[in-house]
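Fig. S4 source data, part A: sequence.
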Amino acid sequence: MLAGGHDRIYPTEYAAALERFLECGAAISEMPFGWEARGRGFPRRNRIIAGLAQGSIIVEAACRSGSLITAGFAAEQGREVFAVPGSPLDPRAEGTNALIRDGATLCTSAQDVIDALARQIGELPRSDLLSEPAPRSRTTNRCGKNSICRRSRLRPAERQNPATPIS
């Protein structure tokens, strides 16, 4: 997913990696050719990424982090929001800790993601490939959409129309 036009790869160091990726994949952009990636374009890109993915993992987010905007988009689109906890003394963990408090799925390992997504698609989660299936959870920890939307700093109009550019 590109933040700029297809002919304006950002950062330019990724051009070779993109070419290799395009051999068996695709690059998507909402922006026209010639459009250079700008900071305000990243939330638009992340809205699409959140919609394409089954879940978004927020590893680190200060209170006013762009990652929280992505978490808001994911929650609005009915996707799972995972958050990695951090020290309550670390300002870079304030956002992820708040997401967990507000209902995001706690993520301390890849297995947490596998288990949550397996429940989502109706399969029984496995703790590892050689063990017996774990019992199905009776509850899923769905993200609190409204609280995450508030934390994302999206204005009400943008919540209704995620295609609205964020300035």
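Fig. S4 source data, part B ends here. The longest strand covers residues 55-58.
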